[in-house]
Predict the structure.
Amino acid sequence: MAPLVPSQAELDRRRIVDINPETVSNIPSTDFPGHWPGESHEWNLDQFRNDFKVEFHRNERFESSFSLIGVDASIANAFRRILMAEVPTVAIEFVFVHNNTSVIQDEVLAQRLGLIPLKGSVEGINWMRWFKKPTEDDPESGSTPADFNTIVLRLDIECTKNPNADPEENDPRKLYKNAHVYARDITFHPVGRQEQFFIDEEAIQPVNPDILIAKLRPGQKIDMELHCIKGIGADHAKFSPVATASYRLLPDINILRPILGEDAKKFAKCFPKGVIGLEPVTREEAAKQGSGYEGHEGEMKAVVRDAFKDTVSRECLRHEEFQGKVKLGRVRDHFIFNVESTGQFESNALFLESVKVLKLKCARWKRGLADLMR
Amino acid sequence: MPASVHSQDQDQSMMDAAAAAAPQEQEQQLEQEDVLELEEKRIIVLPGATETAASFQFEGEGHTLGNALRYTIMKNPQVEFCGYTIPHPSETKMNLRIQTYDTTNAVEALEKGLDALMDLCDVVTDKFTASQDAFSASEADKMRS
């Protein structure tokens, strides 16, 4: 059978997930061999390379937004999931409390410390190995701390009276020294080869020095050793390199029949600012028979300016006067990603990391498969 | 772009770095750890498999790889059916079912799917870096003018 080529209109229809007043339809992807008679849909790398596009919207140091266009939801979702749960970072995992006379309990303090986002040389983290925790069955099975799997931080601080303080002073931060313990009070103690990787700016340190850890009063002391290890978000959220990593599908608004005059204004109000614009009906449009614009030259009509900004609230579908005049949808293969880094990685590097993780996973399983066949 | 956390061949490069500077005993420990890491990643073929229809069990995987792999395997016209499931949410196991036509076999289809997914990753990386560079260049232009 000769391959059938679907019309452009049909291809456009397949690209849109329909959004109806109460339901969604045309949901699953159908680009598989055997789904449409006479069409191939076989995996084709060159075709993918041609169709796939990346568009950047924003690229700040710790927050970026970009679109992946021409990729299936399963793939886009894999990247999103990996970003959140499988890109490794370092975080405080073991806390050895030598002294803690503050009012905050050891275990609560340890929990707070674990959640502090840390940053440091990416090469260094690359060089670091996983720290294997002992299993319940075999308490001896864990790795021993070494320069390649553990980073040592210390928090050693004591609150004292400030002899120079004004006797009338009420602010404890002026009245005492070290009344507030901040993330910046954590010190890094490189061991072995860590000195080659984590130098100066690249040293392991909290991303934000102003995180409040505890409050002290004169005579109270905190002295603890903090061991950081490399881990992934799937194990504990503190290892997740992103604050958020999410995507949404590009909204699609299709005005089927003219929306004119007062209705057009009301229509624009159904959407966020900038989504719908108003334009006068031109002479040509008014002259065209059956367009719905006949005799409306100069009146304002609603046009779609920027569907990207829409939130797909479906408000316009609730009004009687727009019934059958507008079709809402989302573009099936246009994923608008938003990635916000916690500070270890730059946000755009993060996405590339996630792609690498997926590739590495595949490579490893391919090796596993080869072992299976041996 | 900063260097990656995932070097292409992690096990190998780690061995080298350790071997260069570490004493004997540490090296031995590293080797042991490598073995452990490799042993963790196992595929099991579930009972009842035939040449063209098999269920593979992936230990330590979830929807991330499951769904992506299902997609690339389904893109193969020689595959009759492909689906994945996570039989129990508290076990990190993923079962992948592949049924093929007589022209190929299940293992081959799985291998092809993995290859396709790796090729896809390369394209995504290339396009992403290119787009990112173009964007930073245009931003720099805007700043200058």
